[in-house]
Amino acid sequence: MTLLPLLIVDGANVVGSVPDGWWKDRRGAAERLRDRLAERGGPAEGPYPGPYEIVLVLEGRARGVAPVPGVRIEEAPGSGDDLIAELARNAGGRPCLVVTADRELRRRVAEAGAECVGPRALP
């Protein structure tokens, strides 16, 4: 059985990359991102072909979003970046792609062997 590549999405960073009023309703913005991921999947182009096992990492006031088929939700008890780095480290040697524009997080997950793309890579 072949494991799907793991796609870890930095919810706060991706939601915050588009000034569409997300700050007024963080959970609603996270739900819209979750639904978009469930509908469209991961990046159309990138280092790994889809489909992916998709994990959306949420923190702060965006917590409380329910998972849907195709998108697992991981709620960070503290720093979302710490949880994302941990998930990348624990990918078990399978391909792992992280969606974030955060430079420090990109460095941390690269050390764990993950690839990165920015929020614009998502359809």
**What assembly state would you assign to the polypeptide chains in this entry?**
single chain
Number of strands: 5
Gyration radius (Cα, Å) is: 13 Å
Terminal-residue CA separation: 28 Å
State mean pLDDT (0 to 100 scale): 92
Q: Element order, helices and strands?
A: EHHEEHEHE
Assess the beta-strand content as a share of residues. Answer: 15-25%
Q: Give the spatial strand order of the biggest sheet.
A: 3-2-1-4-5
Please describe the biggest sheet, giving its number of strands, its sense, and whether it closes into a barrel.
5 strands, parallel
The general outline is globular
The number of helical runs is 4
List unreliable stretches of 5+ residues. Answer: none
> Helical content, roughly?
25-40%
Structural class: alpha/beta
How is this structure best described in words?
The chain is α/β, with parallel strands linked by helices and 123 residues long. The chain has four helices and five strands. The mean pLDDT is 92. A five-stranded parallel β-sheet has the order 3-2-1-4-5, with helices on both faces. β4, α4 and β5 form a beta-alpha-beta unit. The N and C termini lie far apart (28 Å).
